[in-house]
Amino acid sequence: MVITIILFLIIFTIMVVAHELGHFLLAKANGIRVKEFFVGMGPTLFHVKKGETVYSLKLLPLGGACVFDGEDGMDLKEGEAPKEGSFPAANVWARIATVIAGPIFNFILAYMFSLIIVAACGVTLPTIGSVTDGGAAQEAGLQAGDVITRVDGKRIHLFSEFSMYVGLNGGKELTVEYDRNGSRNTVTVTPIYDETDARYYIGIVSTQGAQAVKGLHLFQYSAYEVKYWVDLTFKSLGMLVTGQASIKDLGGPIAIAQTVGETYEATAPSGFVTVLLNMMNLVVLLSVNLGILNLLPLPALDGGRLLFMLIEVVRGKPVPPEKEGLVHFIGMAALLVLMVVVMYNDMMRLITG
C-alpha cells in the first residue's frame, strides 16, 4: 500500500510538473510574470519564494497550476491598460503560446518516455501470428504471416492499434488491408462478441513477439506508440459522448492509484527494471490523457482559454474580462461537480472490489 501511494505520487507529480513547466517556461520567455507555481490543491504544505514566483506543494494530489499576474483580468478597471508584465499585457499570440505549452509538454513527456520504453522493449508489429479456428479472421481468409497495413483506411503500424480498432469498433464490419508475400489484399471482417471478456474479437493472435527497434526507426515507432494512446483517448471520449460508455466508467485519482498498485504487484516479481518500464508506460498513457483533456474547448481548461483567445484574434479585441471570467467560473463549478462524481465512482469501485 505504501509503495502504491509513493509510486502514484511520483507519477502524478511528473505529469503535473511537466504540464505546468510548459506554461511557466513560455510565460517567462514572453515576459509574463508568474505569481505562483504549485502542485496539488488545497492547503499549502510547503512553499518557497524565488524571485517573483512562489513555488508551493499543496495537500491534495488533484492537480496544479501556474498562476500568471493578472491572468483573469478581473482586477482591471474599465478603460485601464494592463500593467507591464501581466498576462493581459502580452500580445495574444504570446498568451496562446503560453497556454498551449502545458498540453504540448505533456505530449513531449509522453514521447520521451516512449523512446525509453521502445528502446528497451521493442514493438509488436501488426503481423498475424495465428488465426483462431472458426473465427471471423479465418472465415475472411486471413492467414498467419499476413501483415495488417490498414483498417477502414487508417494506417496501422502496431499490433496494439489493430487490437484497439477491433475491440472498440462496436462489432461493426471492418475493412482490413494486408500484405501477403508482397501482394496487397483487402477483406471485410465482422468481429464476434465474447461474453466472457465482454469485448469483440476477430480471432487473430500475434505470436511474433516484440521486435527490436534501432536507429531512426526508434524515433518513428516511439511516435507511433504515442499516437496509439492519443487515438485510444479520442476513441474513449467518443464512446462517452455517444453513450457507448457511461460517466460511471470514469475514474479519478483512486482508480489511477489502484491501477498503479495492480501494475506494481504484477510486475514486481520480474525486477526493478520491469516495474520502472511499466510505470513509465502509465506516465505515457496518463500524460497523453492530461494533454488531450486540457485542450478540450471547455471553460476553465486550457482549451477553453484558447477558445477565447482565438475569438480575440478573429474580432480584433479581447472578450470583456468579466464575461470570460463568468464563463470560466461556471466551468470550474461544473468541473468540481464532475470531480465529486468521479471520486464517488472511485469509492464505489473500492468498496465493491
Question: What do these coordinates show?
Answer:
52% of the residues lie in helices and 18% in strands. It is built from nine helices and ten strands. It has helices at 2-29, 92-121, 136-140, 159-167, 216-242, 253-267, 272-295, 302-315, 321-352, and strands at 34-50, 53-68, 130-131, 147-151, 154-155, 174-180, 183-189, 192-194, 199-201, 204-205. The strands form four sheets. Strands 5-4-6-7 form a four-stranded antiparallel sheet. The longest helix is centred in the last third of the chain and has 32 residues, at 321-352.
Brief synopsis:
The protein is α+β, with helices and mostly antiparallel strands. It is built from 9 helices and 10 strands.
List keywords for this structure.
353 residues; alpha+beta; 4-stranded antiparallel beta sheet; two-stranded antiparallel sheet; 9 helices; 10 strands
